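[recover] target loaded
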């Protein structure tokens, strides 16, 4: 199936595509909306528990639809960082955003790794309460680094690189403000809930608490329910169960978006693109998205590796343990490696073996 440039120009709200005669649907529209697909994956990956107040304006200018179309059609992209070592690492940082509490704490931290030569994808989740050292010799939780660095991801990227032993090529931040609208735009999600959720103290919008519960099994969630499901952490398993819940939503979003028809669902996809734009920051430019398409189109998403680094006391092989220390004069719950407070060898080993299932230790 093909389209002429004149017909496509109408789809792009009058963007001029003069000189481009024809191109296949799969190589045009699918490339254009891979950006939306990647955002869909990222959205599920980085929805965080609101730990509170105004959202910063994106430092990067929103990616323009016309520019995306130009890059995808003309294939003018340069190679991605990381391709020379056959591993592209993208750091996803998720925060709650306004009007939730602690809006700039990155309560979800996921390292996405892509291996171009074998078309593999791995996701490694780090807990928000992981204890790290600061440049001045102090200590803090890893989720505060973004805020400490004046809402700049550079410090978090540096620390995650130190912990995992992996260079970070790109970053992607997402706030939860658009979750409800995005899910509702998609018509809701079918999510496989792995275990019962019973949170008697879920934070309500008026500053109080309310009960939130979901039975295990397949459940259909609208946007408001997905927000609650991704934020809850007071039920059995706490933060560690919440990370597994996030992975279930990642899978639901992936199936939903990949199941859409890029022509018939054009209005929904364009609406999704528009809704996501105010809630994201990234240093991946238009040409980078083109290269991600070239690589990602061959990935088998049924073989994606999900690795969660946690300190769940129910898990005998968990790499981390919990302890209480004093941070800024206040007792704080933190997670540290079992082998020593700042001994990240086990995490680095898991990151190095993310593409080798038998080599994953956690």
């Amino acid at each position: 199936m093909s389209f002429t440039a004149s017909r496509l120009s109408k789809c792009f709200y009058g963007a001029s595509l003069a000189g481009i005669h024809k191109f296949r649907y799969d190589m045009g529209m699918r490339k254009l909306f891979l950006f939306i697909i990647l955002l869909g994956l990222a959205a599920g990956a980085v929805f965080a528990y609101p730990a509170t107040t105004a959202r910063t304006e994106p430092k990067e200018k929103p990616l323009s639809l016309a520019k995306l179309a130009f890059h995808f059609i003309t294939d003018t992209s340069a190679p991605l960082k990381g391709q020379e070592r056959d591993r592209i690492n993208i750091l996803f940082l998720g925060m709650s955003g306004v009007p939730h509490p602690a809006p700039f704490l990155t309560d979800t931290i996921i390292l996405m790794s892509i291996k171009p030569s074998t078309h593999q994808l791995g996701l490694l989740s780090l807990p928000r309460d992981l204890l790290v050292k600061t440049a001045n010799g102090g200590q803090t939780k890893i989720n505060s680094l973004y805020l400490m660095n004046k809402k700049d991801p550079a410090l978090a990227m540096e620390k995650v690189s130190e912990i995992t032993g992996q260079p970070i090529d790109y970053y992607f931040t997402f706030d939860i403000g658009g979750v409800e609208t995005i899910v509702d735009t998609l018509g809701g999600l079918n999510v496989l809930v792995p275990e019962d959720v019973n949170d008697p103290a879920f934070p309500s919008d008026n500053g109080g608490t309310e009960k939130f519960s979901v039975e295990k099994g397949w459940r259909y969630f609208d946007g408001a329910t997905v927000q609650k499901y991704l934020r809850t952490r007071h039920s059995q398993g706490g933060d560690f169960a919440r990370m597994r819940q996030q992975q279930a939503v990642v899978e639901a979003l992936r199936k939903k978006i990949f199941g859409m028809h890029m022509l018939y669902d054009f209005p929904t996809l364009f609406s999704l693109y528009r809704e996501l734009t105010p809630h994201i920051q990234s240093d991946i430019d238009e040409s980078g998205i083109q290269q991600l398409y070239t690589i990602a189109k061959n990935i088998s998403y049924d073989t994606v590796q999900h690795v969660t680094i946690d300190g769940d006391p129910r898990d005998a092989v968990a790499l981390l343990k919990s302890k209480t220390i004093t941070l800024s004069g206040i007792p704080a719950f933190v997670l540290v490696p079992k082998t020593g407070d700042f001994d990240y060898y086990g995490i680095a080993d898991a990151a190095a073996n993310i593409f080798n299932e038998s080599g994953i230790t956690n």
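[recover] notes: The longest strand covers residues 106-115.
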